[in-house]
Amino acid sequence: MNDTTPRGAFQTVRRRLLLAACAVIVTATAPAPALADLVGVLPRVKPSIVAVGTFQRTRSPAFQFRGTGFVVGDGRLIVTNAHVLPDAVATDKMEALVIAVPGADESAMARPVVRIAADRERDLAVLRLEGGPALPALTLARDERVQEGQEIAFTGFPIGAVLGLTPVTHRGIISAVTPIGIPQGKARDLNPALVRRLANDVFRVYQLDATAYPGNSGSPMFDPRTGEVIGVLNMVFVKSTKENVLSDPSGISYAIPVEYVNRLLAGAR
What we know:
The protein is an alpha+beta fold. The protein folds into 2 domains: about 45-130, Thrombin, subunit H (Beta Barrel); about 150-269, Trypsin-like serine proteases (Thrombin, subunit H). It has 7 helices and 12 strands. The strands form 2 sheets. Strands 1-2-3-6-5-4 form a 6-stranded antiparallel barrel. A 6-stranded antiparallel barrel has the order 7-8-9-12-11-10. A hairpin with a 7-residue loop joins strand 1 (about 50-55) and strand 2. The chain is globular and about 85 Å long. The termini are far apart. The model is unreliable at about 25-30 (pLDDT under 50).
C-alpha cells in the first residue's frame, strides 16, 4: 500500500502532526538566550548596587569613592571587598563610612554604614546600614560551585571616581575555577601572605572571561538567567596573589565564590 491510498494519506498526515508536536515541545523547553534573560533581570539587580566610600562635608569632593557593594538580607546588609574599606575613618574630622545610592535624591544619597564582619583571608566584608529605609536586596545562591563555561554577569562602578556613579554591567563566562594560592617555582618568589595561604587555607576562586576595572571591586557576580549572586568581584586581593601585575594588569578578572559570603553572613547575625 502506498501513500496515495486513504490509509497512506492518513499515516502521512499523522507523521507530520507528530513531528510538528515534537517541534513545539522542543521550542517550548529550550532555554531562553542569556542576553534576553539579562535584559529582564537587570531592572531587579541595579537598585541593589551601591557605591562604598567615605563622606566628609568640608572636603571636595565630599564623597570619596572606594568601590562597589550590593545589598542582601533584610535590605540593611551590604557586601563588599574588605580592601575597599579604609583602615581608619577620621571621625574627629567628621568623616564617616557611607554608601552612596545612585539615583536617590541628594539628602538620601550618602547613608552611614558600620562594619559588622570581615574575612581578610577571602577579602570580604559586611556593612550594616544605619537608619533610614531598607534597600532592595539581591538573592544569594546556595553554596554549590558553578560550572566552567557558565555564563555570568556583574554590575558595579568601573573607574567610578572618573565615570560617575552609574551602575555598569559586563557579561562573560567562568573560564576556570582555580586555587588562589599557586606554588611558586623559586623560593624567592614566595611572600609571607602566600606562604600562609599555601600552608593553611588554599581556596578556589573563579577566573572570568570578562574584563573588570578598578572600582568593580565588590560588585556582585550573578547568574544572568535568575539574578542570583554567585560570587563577588575582586580586583586587588586575588590579582596580587596570582599575578602580581597590578601596575600592568592582564585583563583577567576574578571573583570570590558566594559560599564564603554565606558563611560570613551566618557568623555576623
